[in-house]
Amino acid sequence: MDKPPVKMMDPTLAEMGNHLSDAMKILESGKLESEQGEERRKLSWKDIPGPLQGDGQDVVSILQLVQNLMHGDDDKQGHRMQYVGEQGHMALLGHSLAAYISVLERERLRKLTTRILSDTTLWLCRLFRYENGSAYYHEDDREGLVKVCRLAINTHYEDFTTEGFTLLSSKHPVIYQSAACRTGLGQHLCSQLALPLSSLCIVPCNTMFGSLHQMDVALLDKLIKDDRESGKLPLLLIANAGTPGAGHTDKLSRLKELCVQYNMWLHVEGVNLATLVLGQVSSTVTAATKCDSMTLTPGPWLGLPAVPAVTLYRHEDPALSLAAGLTSSQPVEKLRALPLWLSLQYLGHDGIVQRIKHASQLSQQLLEHLKTLASIKTSVEDELNSPVVVFRFSQDNSAPSSGGSVEGYLAGERDILDALNRWLGEQLAQQVPLSGVDVVELEDEGTCVRFSPLMTAAALGTQENDVAALVEKLGEMIPVLSCTLRFRQDFKDEVLQQASLSYIEDQSWSGLGGVRYEPRTTDLDEDKSQHRVEKINSDLLKKLMELDTELYFSDGPEFCEEKNCIFIGMATEDLDVAELVETIVSFGRDIEESGKLFENMTEVVRRGIHEAEQQLQKANEEKLMEEGVLRQIPLVGSVLNWFSPVQASVKGRTFNLAEGCLDSTEPVYSVKAQMNKEASLDSPKSVTKRFPGQKLFRRHGAGSDSVSDTSSVSQLEESFRETAPVQASDAEEAEVPQEHHVHIVEETASSDQRVPEGQETESVDTLR
């Protein structure tokens, strides 16, 4: 028996597919250009575009430009493209094929588009258990809701196509949506339909019974009755099968009963609709198959880039569907389904189910591990089958704590926990990027971390080991969060004990807290005083950031109301809060004193020079009266000084730059003599003892930086060198006046005066 002839592929289609596949791989890899081209790109691709070239460019040059725009800053910013597999290439190929198919003759184009649209609609209805449904394909995932709402208007207002919106004034339509719906969804719907915002009714969620993210059905029933009694028309209800925040599902069965009772249209959307393709589905999600319409987003669920969203709906009147824009007589409009048509065939039924099942298993894997972690609270609708996992760090009062108490401090401090959870989510997303976690703000729970693999796993390629890495990182961060929460109050108490520090209360900061160094009051005006505070705290922040420590220092959150502050980041178990605060005070005092010196330097030096000149002139006059005129004559004075030396005492003077006055040198030399005596006795300074490997602001014996018996002497010396700025004690403060003195010795003898042997003299320095 002869086999049927096999039709050969159109060579144009095959060639286009090969070229497109090669072009996408080249653009993704970023290896198109040569070394000369790379150098030229660095010099020119960011420049202002020039005019369109008259002779045109070849394909390679155009792809070169596209690649430069895609990968230009990858080396600097570390951008990572979304994972695009072979199924993604099929979806991208569909857009090119749609342009190619659109040039076919009209009759052939009509047959082809009808086949593509009918196949895709049939597959989707069977996959998601939506019997006898039609499909509308759209780019904006909100557009399908706009179309079905227009269909509901056409259904309830029979003369709407001829009378228009004049009919709506007699019987005002009302659209109901849950408070947990997407932000701005109802406003977008009203703006697209030219309805007033009074047509939108927000239904609150449960407050006493059931999930806090589910629509309150009893309250909805009351609102509908009130609207009907006031002459309004309940038109449409928007429900969730997986809220955008927590992934909870409304009571769809009960909502469907209300819609049937009041002749309303029920529309359902949400990420949990993806689980309809699985063999075992929860009854709450299965109820979505009885709704009037539902919006699906297969692109993120299956990792398909640039595929349209799909709204499945049921309606018996094709004319009204056409009037609402759900169907089109233009064949080109039907080509929107082509990328999805290609991708679904490439994946197959088993491949689609496997991807959804894999994402659900990842959620269950994470949920099981979270149950074993202390201080982590989860917010899931169904622990046995929840595609979205939302969790939050929440310090339990019963949890053991060392070095401080959390009771009482947590009362009313939800903002602090929100800040810590925001930091937790950002760190997890940064350190485990393949997990796809993000931060979400929930009205009741506050700031939480969300893991929704149905929306991210297919695009990122998330696997079980990524979830394990996420759990591992989370286990490492929980002690840091607990210690930071415990040490916040200790840090505040230590700061309030320092007169030169002000504690900055900012509960949105995820760390120990903020401080501001306040210099001692002076006679400066307000502007100069403010500038001085800004300068001191800026220099103090730079000095703290240069320290070899694991603590993070910053100028605060981006929108912080307080200015000229220093914020300290997360803490660890072995943090020495007292040493940290003392270091800030010590550094701030040094910067303040140095600032005073430079601020007063010009005027002080000018006054000091003038005073020194007056005293030197007075000393010369006294010398002339004491020694006589003859001793001032060069030759005669030398002879007289040889035979009859003058026993004149040298009066040393020091110029204090900080105070701007001349002092005697006797205290200086007495202090130096005392220091030499202490040095001879080998008396070391009083410093904080630090052990080998012990970093700044760390308590010895707490944490991983404990002393090892094999620590070398070099490590010990280096440890002391690193902590030298912090260990400055009162001895250094006592030396501050000595560092700011300039010695000025009055000249009381002529340059050629002979001094008897054994008599100590001091050099003469004159400031001019």
Automatic annotation (TrEMBL):
GO biological process, one term: carboxylic acid metabolic process
Coiled-coil zones: 602-629
Region named Disordered: 697-768
GO molecular function, one term: carboxy-lyase activity
A Pfam short name: PDXDC1-like_cen2
Basic and acidic residues composition bias: residue spans: 737-746
InterPro entries xrefs: GrpII_AminoAcid_Decarb, PDXDC1-like_2nd, PDXDC1-like_3rd, PyrdxlP-dep_Trfase, PyrdxlP-dep_Trfase_major
Cofactor: pyridoxal 5'-phosphate
Keywords from the named record: Coiled coil, Decarboxylase, Lyase, Pyridoxal phosphate
Composition-biased stretches (Low complexity): 704-714
Keyword Zinc-finger: no
Ranges where the PDXDC1/PDXD2 second domain occurs: 386-485
PDXDC1-like third domain sequence ranges: 491-596
Composition-biased stretches (Acidic residues): 759-768
Record-stated family: Belongs to the group II decarboxylase family.
Protein name (Swiss-Prot/TrEMBL): Pyridoxal-dependent decarboxylase domain-containing protein 1
Organism from which the protein derives: Onychostoma macrolepis
